[in-house]
Each structure stands twice: as structure tokens, then as C-alpha cells.
Amino acid sequence: MTTTTYVRHTSVTITQADPVDDAHPLGTTELARAAGDREEWVVALVETGLIAPAVPGAPQAQWVFDGEALRCALQARRLQRDFDVGLDAAALIIDLQREVRRLRALVGAAQPQRPAGG
User: Average pLDDT for residues 43-56, to the nearest whole number?
Assistant: First the structure.
């Protein structure tokens, strides 16, 4: 009896790195490549509301994304990879994490500051 095992290897080569900002947004292809997935996956991220193009209402061929969209896409990819969740579940998890951070910031801002040394 012969058993064949297939191992998937992924390698990434970065030849140039620019910051993702207003002057250097990512197109759909670049965002997909940065997250290690396909353009269809980026479209699904937009459809679920996880990310949004920098220019609302722009045609899909002209979509560009900012750094926050990249961070969110990478987080969704990690959730899918590590916990085998679908995009809807990833969107819910990410939304809940954002809400927890927002609420913690509000609670932290409402806490009276203690004087130093006291």
C-alpha cells in the first residue's frame, strides 16, 4: 500500500515595501496578495462589510483600500486559518473585538486619574 502526502508550501518575496496610506493605497489584487488569498475573497470581504473601498461607490475595478482595510483583511485571514471560521463569523468576531476596545477606552477615560505617589 502506497500513501502519498501533499504538503503546501507558500513563499513570499517582497521586492519593495511602501506604507499603505492615502498616497499608497492597495488595489484589490495587491490586498489579496498581501493577505495570501484571491481577489474573489477581497470582494467577499467587502460584501460582508468587513472592509470597504477607500472611495465609496467606486466601481469594483477601481477599488483601493487603506491600511485599516489591510489590517482587517489580515485579521480575517488569521481567523479563517487558525479557527476555520467563515467570513460571517470572522466579521462578527472582528466587530466584537472593536466594540470591546471602544468600551475599554471609554471606561479608561472615565476612570479618575490617581495622583502620582499616592
Answer: 95
